[in-house]
């Protein structure tokens, strides 16, 4: 049943497009006509040492893609198709794959081990292919021609991939033990073949998650740690790097087991940071960053009091290592590259500075005396590297230590920093502006008692920032960031802000920046617009006229993008980017001016023009623009209220389009939210559009292609619609209720330890409950009877929430609200149900004890409503 | 694993700002807040905010509180002949509260969204503010009531949802406490009716820790804003007696509430209000026109009058109680640089020099409150309104000020320093209007 596919596979890689296309066609045809034969042919091709490497590689790749996909629904489909195959076909494919592991061709071995892992991911959880681990381990024992080094290497690689694919509970402990034994043997210092050592070390990296019980046992743990530490000294730098990666992974997975090894690990990592090649040194730094992450998380989760008998394991490794660790990290800071301001760049200096910042957060005040002398010694040196490193060190420790410690330092340094913005070196200026931003972020704002920024120094700060915003793009981008954080600190300033007198000139400077020729570099244009957003958000009543003047400027800019000449895909991309940014600014302005009665008219006057532009932009159909324009429209609807109805006829098609955008589910999700905005704005005037909207929403709910995160908001949106159109929602009940009931059942059954799923089910419940609330409230006045048939089910759903110990506060609140709404709307017809269902007493009683005032109030109200019902 | 120099996941070097998520989050917050507000409104959990002279607010209550409505109608039919005024009964537009939002500049739906600053901003406009009595209105005896005004802090007292909140003239909360007002505490009786709320106009008298009730705008969820004062006065005495509001304090009724005695403004009534025995320190007399609705802002249908006998504050004092050498007034800066009183429309008493405005344009803008003194040249008055004033700029007004002075206050205080309107003048006017009546 296998066919000769070599030529087709080669043709599929032909440079000639038509040949390639034809080959792809025939592969597809083959697959559709005879899936089993197709897979078998591919497996044989991959296993056959007489075939060309190119066709073998592609055969493996197509095979792999027939077993797994990124999309969850597609992945499940493929797994099902594989499981359904004839046993003997599967057996033949698997043995072909296993035999390929001993091939001389490295590519074939490598591809085969990946495919084996994919098969194992489908079969092992179902209890199939029990012999797999045994066969692989057998490859590892014995020597000589039967078991050549390359077979061992490929086998270790396969073991690693298998461990990566399957979850820990799938393998039995004795299988795990056997795998670890084989892996550790391959890593051992006695292993002279570095390819084997590398494959073993990489396999261990993937197997670490399985080794919990081995790490509980001190002998096994000692042994594992010794082997990993020895591998960090291997002559082959690939092995050293992989070994440090293992250490990084161990530091987060087995933090509480590390104490006995820390002294050795410190010695190893510091030697690597100082002496080893950069990729290795970076991993050594990453080890400490990871330890910092752990200790920061422990402190955040448990607060600062750790008693002697505390169950929390908090060893203060960073604090203990501090006197040696800080100098080590400071040394890395002067290893900058000449030109390092590229996105995604990563080098020793960056890693060291980042780690220093984490150390500061982990230990707080203790870091200050260790870093300050370094800053003082280097900040004025002639070598720019020293100046930049000193500034970077200073900026890095601004988060973590107490405000009391930092304030005098910053007061002392501020004038110097402002002066350093005139440094001759670009990177020094870049880091200085970043540091100013950090000062504004952590030492400025309403919560800071002794402000660092005062009416005296503010004018000078702004003068420097507004001058340097015209520096090179990377510096200007950091200046924008600093302005953003400066403005943020003046949030909630009341009716006037210290920034008010400068607002006009800040806005002017930002607008000029957005128009720079080089604004496309270093994300400068985006930063300038986003800073403008924050400036608008933090502006106060007294500068409302300035913001009102900004509105037509932004509208003009957006308008001119519509007429941009588009000669290339680059032009198109730029147009999209700029439109998205401008829509963002408009959204923020609409929200700002629309939220006050005194300024609302400014928005209302421009609403027609704005809406016309948004509609034109929709015509360009780019996802990000779509999203930003959608958000702006939501804000506009909120301000215009029922006047928004005049735009509906034209806008409706794009609303539909947004709801249909499954692929960019963010867009879909945002559109669902905007439907809610429009419901609240239009009230019953939305009725003519509801049939179409509801049909689409119901379709979205039934689709398994739509990202699940959009589904809870869709249910909430049902509530919004019901509240807007009242008893008219009756026509959708027959469709909507089964969906709601099905989802309610799903969320009630879910017993899951998976935090992500618990979170999702809580979101789902909130959506369902908001839908019920909206429907009850919408029906209350005219058709209270319509919901009576569903009352029992809804009470059962509420009871299932009551008994769930994992329910979160927001779910509780929404559930209590629905309980009251049910009694309030159904009235006497709910009396007997409520009399028979006593759980509500306990539920409401618990909620009345809550510290959350609004939960208490809702519970009080619900109880009063029920009592009134039951006593009359 | 060939991530040679790749950045480890989650590590960021010199994090740059990103605003997009913030924009999304803010939109989501707005949406869920909007949804919550509507739900709360539907559940009548938030009924603190009542727009003036609009019965649309009470639609929902109309549906729920049928028995109260019937009660109101009963009273109306039996009493309307006495009072000659229709009680503003709860409207019956049961189809819902939505759809009527545009009726008022700030409808209840908007108002209920308010918190913090915005709630303060809203509440500070919910007071009826008496003019100062600069000359005596005619028909005092026929059309007016008079009461001794307790000294203290003017408050709106709102009971709803099991708690009672008092708010000062500037909108800030004074107390949050349990009271025996309907739905004013979390006791079994009062919590049972969650759609019920009350709004009272009071003066809080600190020495006695007592709220003196001078007016009532809402009772058990329905509006008295559009009722005349005579009816409101009747309602205050009859309704408050029925409930335990005037009783002794307790765990569920933290502050004493008392009614200020009100007299018809004849000679005897005025005399009693002026120096009769009252349990509190007096701060002048408050005159109320019996036909007046409870209107928001300054009204000539409520008048305040003081002299040295009836008030120790009859001339404005500074913070430590001294009478300043020159009369101080607070005016609002207008768009055109003039400064005016808080009346609608404001009375312009002067303008700021152009060069001063230019020099301070960063700091000064329309709407700000400025403090002035009235200099030796004083005011010149034509037809009861000042036409020119010798005012001298002193600086910004205290930031706790709710608004500028009214023209009547400026005039009253001016008169108090020069030729005050005396007790005997008012008494004479009452006698004169008695004569008129005889004719």
From TrEMBL, chain A:
Annotated Gene3D superfamilies: Leucine-rich Repeat Variant
Main location: cytoplasm
GO CC term, one of those recorded: cytoplasm
Location in or out of the cell: Cytoplasm
GO molecular-function terms, A-Z: small GTPase binding
Protein name in UniProt: Importin N-terminal domain-containing protein
Family from the record: Belongs to the importin beta family. Importin beta-1 subfamily.
Domain Importin N-terminal: 23-103
GO biological-process terms attached to the record: protein import into nucleus
Domain of life: Eukaryota
PROSITE patterns with a match to the protein in the record: IMPORTIN_B_NT
SUPFAM superfamilies xrefs: ARM repeat
UniProt keyword terms in alphabetical order: Cytoplasm, Protein transport, Repeat, Transport
From TrEMBL, chain B:
UniProt entry keywords in alphabetical sequence: Cytoplasm, Nucleus, RNA-binding, Transport
KW tRNA processing (keyword) present: no
Compartment annotation: Cytoplasm; Nucleus
Superkingdom, natural source: Eukaryota
Region (Disordered): 1-24
CC terms in the record's Gene Ontology section: cytoplasm; nucleus
A Gene Ontology biological process term: snRNA import into nucleus
Database matches in InterPro entries: Snurportin-1 (IPR017336), Snurportin1_C (IPR047857)
Primary location group: cytoplasm
Nucleus is among the record's keywords: yes
PANTHER family given in the database record: SNURPORTIN-1, SNURPORTIN1 RNUT1 PROTEIN RNA, U TRANSPORTER 1
Family indicated by similarity: Belongs to the snurportin family.
Biological role: Functions as an U snRNP-specific nuclear import adapter. Involved in the trimethylguanosine (m3G)-cap-dependent nuclear import of U snRNPs. Binds specifically to the terminal m3G-cap U snRNAs.
Full protein name: Snurportin-1
Species name: Ceratopteris richardii (Triangle waterfern)
